[in-house]
């Protein structure tokens, strides 16, 4: 019901961007359409202070909604920067479909905490922004030393297949101080990777030297879209806005 209302509102606003809120009340969730007051509503959206107040007084805001008429089904760098300010999930309409994006921590500059904010968290969150939802799973400290092979056991099962040469968005598995593939990096193109090493902040690195030497394998998701890395790049670009 809510999804149909959101899609109908976006269609009625075309070619301008639609906007609104998903609100939770004692009677359930409902969609609150808003008027886009941006100066150039075909390229941007802006919600009036009155509509923000109306949403806050109506119940709990579950998500902010807007559309990308004739655009990509991913959040732009500006979208990601403003999403962090609003501290809300953002839902996006594009090409007649609805995409739901959690308000994840920025991909760059994360503090490391194994099992909570680590290389798999970065991998999972980056793929979420690209429209592919990876499962969460429990992982103990130094699982690779306890006879487990979590990455290799799960890559094919979650839609990945192995390739020889990396393209932007591919996952590179690396043997980090182990004979097992225990570290994941996202290939960014131009011999760069995005990854999160233990006891360091998440960052981009040049894919050579140690990382290249101890590469275990390279994986590509069967549902990967050409615009997928645009979503990841937009998040990194948002860190500089």
UniProtKB/TrEMBL annotation:
CDD domains: MPN_NLPC_P60
Record Pfam families: NLPC_P60, Prok-JAB
Name of the protein: Phage tail protein
SUPFAM superfamilies for the chain: Cysteine proteinases, JAB1/MPN domain
Occurrences of domain MPN (ranges): 1-123
Similarity remark: Belongs to the peptidase C40 family.
GO molecular function, one term: metalloexopeptidase activity
Domain NlpC/P60: 86-222
Keywords for this protein: Hydrolase, Metal-binding, Metalloprotease, Protease, Thiol protease, Zinc
Keyword match Metal-binding: yes
GO biological process, alphabetically ordered: proteolysis
Family annotation (PROSITE patterns): MPN, NLPC_P60
């Amino acid at each position: 019901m809510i999804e149909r209302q959101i899609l109908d509102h976006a269609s009625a606003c075309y070619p301008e961007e639609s906007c609104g809120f998903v609100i939770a009340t004692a009677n359930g969730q409902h969609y609150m359409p808003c008027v886009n007051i941006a100066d150039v509503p075909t390229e941007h959206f802006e919600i009036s202070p009155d509509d923000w107040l109306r949403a806050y007084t109506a119940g709990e805001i579950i998500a902010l909604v807007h559309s990308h008429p004739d655009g990509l089904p991913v959040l732009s760098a500006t979208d990601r920067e403003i999403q962090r300010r609003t501290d809300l999930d953002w839902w996006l309409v594009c090409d007649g479909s609805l995409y739901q994006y959690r308000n994840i921590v920025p991909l760059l500059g994360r503090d490391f905490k194994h099992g909570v904010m680590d290389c798999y968290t970065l991998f999972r969150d980056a793929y979420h922004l690209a429209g592919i939802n990876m499962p969460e799973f429990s992982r103990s400290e130094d699982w690779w030393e306890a006879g487990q092979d979590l990455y290799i056991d799960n890559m094919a099962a979650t839609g990945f297949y192995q390739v020889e040469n990396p393209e932007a968005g591919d996952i590179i598995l690396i043997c980090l101080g182990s004979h097992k593939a225990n570290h994941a990096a996202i290939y960014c193109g131009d011999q760069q990777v995005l990854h999160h090493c233990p006891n360091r902040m998440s960052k981009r690195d040049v894919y050579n030297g140690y990382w290249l030497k101890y590469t275990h394998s390279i994986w590509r998701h069967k549902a990967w879209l050409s615009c997928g890395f645009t979503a990841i790049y937009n998040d990194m670009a948002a860190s500089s806005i």
